[in-house]
Fold this sequence. Notes:
The protein is α/β, with parallel strands linked by helices. It has nine helices and eleven strands. It has helices at 12-15, 25-40, 57-62, 67-91, 113-121, 139-149, 183-189, 196-204, 219-224, and strands at 5-10, 44-49, 96-100, 109-110, 125-129, 154-159, 164-165, 177-178, 180-182, 209-213, 231-234.
Amino acid sequence: MKYKRVLLKxxxxxxxxEQGYGIDPERLNDYAEQIKEAVELGVQVGIVIGGGNIxxxxxxxxxxxxxxxxxQMGMLATVINGLxxxxxxxxxxxxxRVLTAIRMEPVGEYYDKPKAVDALEKxxxxxxxxxxxxxxxxxxxxxxxxxxxxxADVMLKGTRVDGVYxxxxxxxxxxxxxxEITFDEVYNRGLKIMDLTATTMCKENNLDIVVFDxxxxxxxxxxxxGENIGTVVKN
Length: 235
Ligand code: UDP
């Protein structure tokens, strides 16, 4: 395998599948199956999961919710998704631990790096939930932070698009895909892969990102094996 320890970022939005809200059990199982396969191949998997399928602080604020409270709601949403993924993985006999960036035992154990690394080394899937634990951040920033902390070889950003394009391929049919792109070029072209805080953390700490389509079964394993699907973002 090309990578031994990875930080996998899954967006909350992709969990809702075709439903438009909440958690689609079929999509959840698809993800869990791919993760199980990765673990069976000996890859250490840390996962940061988003919460956009349930609540986002920023969109809440535009409807009159207090931003600070809304962000806390968003972080709790990521814990709900984390628990859903944990139960799907455990149903497949994959040992999984949920760590939370906000203290809330017994829902999950309070995060610290040694605990996360120890569990990864034992072959457990570690779900790092509640983002960074702070408002005004996103789970993309949470995955940059946790990826750096757990010393992941790479951040794998699973999305519904198969990589980084010159323009939004869903809007511009002439857009072309990059196999590889530097962080500087991402800034220069104003490409929106993740928010700038998250991107800059990866750049400054030399954490490469692979953006790939996680909704096609088997793709996670292909990326782990180093197959050229998706786009690699690096210094
Ligand atoms: N959030 C936060 N701090 C964090 C991570 C997340 O306040 O460190 C909140 C924020 O309101 C965000 C929501 O949790 O909108 C859900 O996360 P995100 O939008 O990143 O989820 P995704 O887009 O991946 O589904």
